[in-house]
Amino acid sequence: MFVGEIMPMGFGVHYVGSEGVAINPFYDILWMIIFVVIIAVIIYILISPLKKQSSSIDNEKLIKIEKDVEEIKEIVKELKKKWEEIE
Length: 87
Description:
This protein is mainly α. Helices cover 77% and strands 0% of the residues. It is built from two helices and no strands. The protein is rod-shaped, with a radius of gyration of 35 Å. The chain starts with a helix and ends with a helix.
């Protein structure tokens, strides 16, 4: 006994409100686009904090580099003074 003998073909495929077959593919594409947009928005929301963290890390690195440069300038000035004293 096969399933086709018990139920006619396509019995489980019929959806309520699917009588307008010409309009149905449009809604399928529309729902697919909406689904893709929702997924893209979720991914963007999940990734955006990572971008903010990386920019703050970059700012912290720049501040540290600026401090290091100032320290190096002071060391160079001190070495220059000592060199002048030696001469």
